[in-house]
Amino acid sequence: MINAKTRLYGLIGKPVEHSLSPVIHNALFKRYNINAVYLAFDVDDLESAVKGVKALGISGLNVTMPYKEQILEFLDELSEEARAIGSVNTVVNREGKLIGYNTDGIGALKALKRFTEVEGKRVLLLGAGGAGKAIAYTLSRLAKVVVLNRTERKAKELEKFGVKGGKLSKENLKRYLSWADIVINATSLGMNEDRSPIPKGLLRENLVVFDIVYSPLETNLLREAREVGCLTIDGLWMLIHQGAESFRLWTGVKPDVEFMRREALKGEKRSI
Ligand SMILES: NC(=O)c1ccc[n+]([C@@H]2O[C@H](COP(=O)([O-])OP(=O)(O)OC[C@H]3O[C@@H](n4cnc5c(N)ncnc54)[C@H](OP(=O)(O)O)[C@@H]3O)[C@@H](O)[C@H]2O)c1
Questions:
Q1: Hey, what domains does the chain have and what are their CATH numbers?
Q2: Where is the Quinate/shikimate 5-dehydrogenase/glutamyl-tRNA reductase domain (predicted)?
Q3: pLDDT-based confidence at 270, cuts 50/70/90?
């Protein structure tokens, strides 16, 4: 029941109306008997929105595009990852102080670890945008990582994390796909469209293929990888695991990720 003690959490971004986060987090509050609600806020003025979070005592936030980087300047403290990556997707209001975290990298790592070993593996990461940066930072600590990006400069900038950066070209794809154990698509290619960042002919059976794009659930890349016989991992697993980390930061509860996935899939059907 909503009453005077109900805590408020939310998502800020633009647009937010297709987000699955409200479905997932409200289901979790109910399941763990936590007196809280989660809403999506379509925000135009980020600075005023963050002031509002403090003024109203909103307990925590998720942050999505286009504000993951811009929000840093309005926060009181940053976690080590958020500072290194330069991007925040989770905010905790700790007694009036807003603390920024980034759970994208750990979310991707946990998604991968459900299906495969990661330590010491050779990882080819496509994309050096917000998500690519977070994944490069996290995986660089335990695997050998090559990052290819359309804008080569952004891939090279990630060399500060100890990865190797290069241009996303057909030649580099061919070279590094024959080297890699795991390939991750962190570009937006394939999101609600038929394109894939990898020509089917370059895929081979013993490759693990992880696409962080989760709409559609089976992207073109994942379908072709499945047809070739690769182990495939969809982006909903990352969405779930990064959300689980946010939930833990807010409430101290480590949620049931299988439950979260079931709720997200139900929510997805409702929104179609
Ligand atoms: N599963 C999850 O939990 C999760 C979490 C975060 C994001 N995502 C998804 O991951 C994707 C990337 O998100 P983001 O936040 O990193 O976005 P972003 O910061 O805008 O980065 C977009 C990335 O895609 C590349 N790209 C875009 N169009 C391309 C094209 N035509 N050819 C080659 N590369 C292209 C960009 O390359 P340039 O640098 O050259 O522009 C950049 O590397 C989105 O689809 C998003 O929905 C999923």
A1: 7-102+238-271 (3.40.50.10860), 105-233 (3.40.50.720)
A2: 111-188
A3: low
